[in-house]
Design a protein that fits this description.
The structure is a single chain. This protein is mainly alpha-helical. 67% of the residues lie in helices and 0% in strands. It has helices at 12-30, 38-55, 63-72, 79-99. The longest helix is centred in the last third of the chain and has 21 residues, at 79-99. The protein is globular, with a radius of gyration of 16 Å.
């Protein structure tokens, strides 16, 4: 018996459906950002920054969610978290200006 191959037609509908599913999953994952341990909150911010830097076009519908996570941590009780969030937002603003996004 031969191997079967999965063929995915990556058309606009597929991208939209996938982005919608990823958005739903990200909402659930990022909800741990309110955890009491500062290292977990920092990790959530690092994750948000990484996605904003690397996936802001393919996951364009998730950008507001990711920015919200960083904004929510600007006044975190732990300086490491608040400073990281500020730096992440600053670096993303450079990407936005460079690409002409709004």
């Amino acid at each position: 018996m031969g191997k079967r191959q999965l063929i995915i037609n990556q058309d606009k509908r597929w991208w939209n459906d996938t982005a919608s599913k990823v958005h739903h999953l990200l909402k659930r994952i990022l909800s741990i950002g309110i955890h009491s341990h500062w290292k977990l909150r920092l990790s959530v911010c690092q994750f948000a920054k990484m996605l904003l830097q690397n996936c802001n076009q393919s996951l364009e519908n998730c950008v507001p969610l990711l920015v919200d996570v960083l904004v929510a941590h600007l006044n975190d009780d732990y300086k490491q978290v608040s400073v990281f969030s500020r730096q992440a937002l600053d670096s993303f603003s450079v990407i936005v200006v460079a690409r002409g996004m709004s």
